[in-house]
Amino acid sequence: MKNVPLYLAGEFVQSQTSDWIDVTNPATNEVIARAPAATDAEMRKAIESAADAFRTWKEVPVSERARVMLRYQALLKEHHDEIAEILSQETGKTFDDAKGDVWRGIEVVEHAANVASLMMGETVGNVARSVDTHSWIQPLGVCAGITPFNFPAMIPLWMFPMAIACGNTFILKPSEQDPLTPMRLTELFEEAGAPKGVLQVVHGGKEQVDVLLTDPVIKAVSFVGSVPVGRYIYETGTRNMKRVQSFAGAKNHMVIMPDADKQQVLNALVGASVGAAGQRCMAISVAVFVGEAQSWIPELKEAMTKVRPGAWNDSGASYGPVISPKARERVESLIATGEAQGANLLLDGRGCTVDGLPDGNWIGPTLFSGVTTEMNIYNEEIFGPVLACMEEANLEDAISLINKSPYGNGVSIFTSSGGAARKFQHEIEVGQVGVNIPIPVPLPFFSFTGWKGSFYGDQHAYGKQAVRFYTETKTVTSRWFSSEATAEAEANFSIQLR
Ligand code: NAD
């Protein structure tokens, strides 16, 4: 049995805790490792060592910090498949999907390597006679990140490379459900030449998170996870006077106009709803068919019947198991509620089995039609391979439906009309919009910009907004004199006084 280490002050150490959390393979429910709930002394050590390291790291020139990211990017690429294999085993993701998780993280590291240009300030010369003003951005200090189970490579990599490239030090508390991938990322970060103490990794749950949310040394907290925890993190962190960005749950709609390309729609809907077993914060969980497009629902059902879950290395599987037996029970109970509340259950994924893997958390593709806004399957984030179909008479009504949703992470429209696409992207109250693209996750030179109940905070993840989040602006106004200018400045000063 592998005991997952902590990473404190630049050393991988075994925790002294008596409280261990099982890490399982969701395809078998076999325990593959144990993660420690870090003790209070270990949490203190992480914070103190991050504070110590900040004193020297902030003085390291920006180009040297960027070079650590360049070496890290090369190492992540070299170990890409090996990381994806670890990730597949602890999340159940298919190998292709796991590789995508790693790759999207590598792209953020590439972006972090451009940190010098991202940290450029502003200058205005001669704001008054002989007076110039410039602004710098400087790191905040110790920052912390709390990450979810569903992207154990990409989401930690949204956070610590950007924060550290900006000159901060960082404490990562990854999901206790899949800590092996973040630990491998940490080993490679050390190998890339990151100095001791710049990154710390602690494990645990609420108790450990509470230390990070309340300790005055920590200046900023990044969180990605569910809505209730996201709200708690935002409220507690800001009450403790920290800067907080909190990315939370979602319910993403895709609007299908009757003039859309039907085959594209069907392919996109299947992949975006059941891909990764629906465990993506940008998964499409509601399909809104406008007008005659609703006649495509039987063909959607047929397309969904053809996909099935399976093991990470089963090339015929479209997706893997859900993360835990508890998650499976929750999704299955929501399916039962949907049926009880009157939705048409066209495909029922409950009781799904996979040959040779009788103990996995499998759920088959599940499709509902006739879903209404009062139903739990509409209001709750299901986080499983379940797609709810709704019908609206026109685009106006589809926009109005989506704008009433408390969530605002991602949305998509499929159409061949530029006018409809423009109206949609202009009027929709959601932070990330796809036009004929089902999952519009931006590349790292933009930012990941969820809205409404899907995000609490001001500055978003990666891109220029992350640099603003992890830095403080200092504005310097200075006056230097040449002897002639001095005389002139003094003359002007005395004129002003008169
Ligand atoms: P979660 O909220 O259960 O856990 C996230 C993190 O918070 C974990 O590290 C966990 O240990 C910690 N945590 C759990 N309970 C806590 C508590 N009471 N107090 C303090 N910390 C606590 O989320 P999850 O199940 O790991 O991840 C799935 C959720 O994440 C989904 O809702 C999904 O939509 C969301 N998500 C959002 C985005 C986004 O960008 N908006 C991206 C990925 C995932």
Automatic annotation (TrEMBL):
Task: Give yes or no: UniProt keyword NAD.
Answer: yes
| InterPro entries in the cross-refs | Ald_DH/histidinol_DH, Ald_DH_C, Ald_DH_CS_CYS, Ald_DH_N, Aldehyde_DH_dom, MeMal-semiAld_DH
What UniProt keywords are attached to this protein's entry?
A: NAD, Oxidoreductase
Domain named Aldehyde dehydrogenase is located at 12-476
Q: Provide the E.C. number(s) assigned to this enzyme.
A: 1.2.1.27
Gene3D superfamilies, per database record: Aldehyde Dehydrogenase, Chain A, domain 1 (3.40.605.10), Aldehyde Dehydrogenase, Chain A, domain 2 (3.40.309.10)
Q: Which GO terms describe its molecular function?
A: methylmalonate-semialdehyde dehydrogenase (acylating, NAD) activity
Protein name, per record: methylmalonate-semialdehyde dehydrogenase (CoA acylating)
Q: Which organism is it from?
A: Marinobacter adhaerens
